[in-house]
Model the fold of this input.
Amino acid sequence: MDKLEQMSDFFTARISDYDEHMIRFVEGCREGYILMADLVPEKAKTLLDLGCGTGLELDEIFKRIPDIEVTGIDLTKEMLEKLREKHPDKKMNLICGDYFKAPFGCGYDCAVSFQTMHHFSKDKKTELYKKIYSALSQEGMYIECDYMVLTQAEEDHWFKENDRIRKEQGIGDGEFYHYDTPCTVDNQIALLKKAGFEIVEKVFRQENTTMIIARK
Done:
């Protein structure tokens, strides 16, 4: 197997065809971007987008709520530049950094993430979900669309493969390298509840593209 790439390097190398790839070739994403936009409350004034990339979900959200104020966080500078080029007139605070560490404030009406959480361990995701929970207003909601699997055997396989490859290549636990480690839908829901969310439900699934809504 080819050596794993650092997360930011992986996405930088694919910037030119990233949008087309996600929309045309990842089953469920085209529909997912539109559905996510429909689920953001129309009265929402502030939005946190984790792993916003080139903003494919924001393309749809801005169609519905053009004046929403967005804080977007992503590791890849080139993706954020493309996002800014697409929406130069929108209210966006774009942060190039690690959303596990970057401060992103609080009081958001809604938070979203699209196809980014399947790269991390359960402990890291629980840590981030707690941070998202604290960043939301009391009436706020979190919408996640991600790659999820159905069986524990599938989940175990990908996590074990990730561990094996990282050990072979001498990659430390805290380093962000691109490899897919999807959780089951049930486990993803359980992690969100562990982080404090009271109501968590699956609202969409096409192939492995799955959308979950979490409320306080």
Summary: Residues 32 and 145 are 7 Å apart (CA to CA).
